[in-house]
Design goal:
241 residues; 0% strand
Length: 241
């Protein structure tokens, strides 16, 4: 089974798990940092996982647009490049969710509660699958510019979050309690979140690049693939930092 065929299966799995988990959260019993109905769309956890599901659908659509399932067929179409970049941004977003749960909310509320119900999928299963797919299966060459793009989701979310608090007040708008220590502390927290997202994406990018190079080196078709340009970015962008 080729890597792209495995990716097809993984992305179909993600695209199936995301709506299933959202329905479970929306109509099942409530858990910590979740709620029934469309009100759960206010949480970055839910939004980032939905973005990952959309990214999987975009990737599947891009790859289904031509004969791109063969490992020896160079992936250099602009549509596929954009889909790969979207997958990278979405994977970094769900990994931020995973890292926040493991490092902050888990110790605060208990890991059993944070992995209860739909949170098991949104906090653990989907982020781990997304990160593993990017690191081990993606063959794109991602640059520092791509790395910088991953801060857009948390940055936009933080801006909307702060505006909502200013309009509705802390009691109704600060559901993550980021502003419990005041606005300066809250803004610092959001800045740290953006930095953490960038660092997670940087680590993922470095691991993906290392594994991709090793696979190309030991692949029987590596020499042929390198001359043909087997990466979505190989002909247009440098490998980056």
């Amino acid at each position: 089974m080729t890597r792209n065929r495995i990716r097809f299966f993984v992305n179909i799995l993600i695209a199936t798990l995301v709506p299933a988990a959202w329905l479970l959260m929306s109509f099942g019993r409530e858990a910590v940092l979740s709620e029934n109905g469309i009100g759960n769309l206010r949480y970055f956890t839910v939004l980032s996982n939905i973005m990952e599901g959309l990214a999987s659908l975009v990737w599947l659509a891009a790859m289904s647009g031509g004969d791109n399932t063969s490992d020896d067929n160079g992936i250099d179409d602009d549509k596929i490049k954009r889909a790969e970049r979207f997958k990278y941004i979405a994977a970094a977003a769900v990994m931020l969710t995973f890292a926040t749960v493991v490092g902050f909310f888990g110790p605060l509320y208990g890991y059993g509660m944070m992995f209860d119900g739909a949170n098991l999928y949104f906090h653990l299963i989907i982020p781990v699958i997304a990160a593993a797919e990017f690191v081990f299966l993606s063959d794109g060459e991602f640059t520092v510019k791509d790395n910088n793009l991953v801060v857009i989701p948390p940055l936009v979310y933080g801006i909307v979050y702060l505006i909502n608090v200013l309009i509705n007040g802390r009691e109704n708008g600060d559901w993550y309690w980021f502003l419990a220590w005041g606005y300066p502390a809250g803004i610092l927290i959001f800045a740290c979140i953006c930095l953490a997202t960038w660092l997670l994406a940087f680590i993922m990018r470095k691991l993906q690049r290392s594994i991709r190079i090793k696979l190309q080196r030991f692949s029987p078709a590596a020499s042929l693939g390198s001359s043909a340009g087997s990466s979505p970015y190989s002909q247009s962008q440098p490998a980056g930092m």
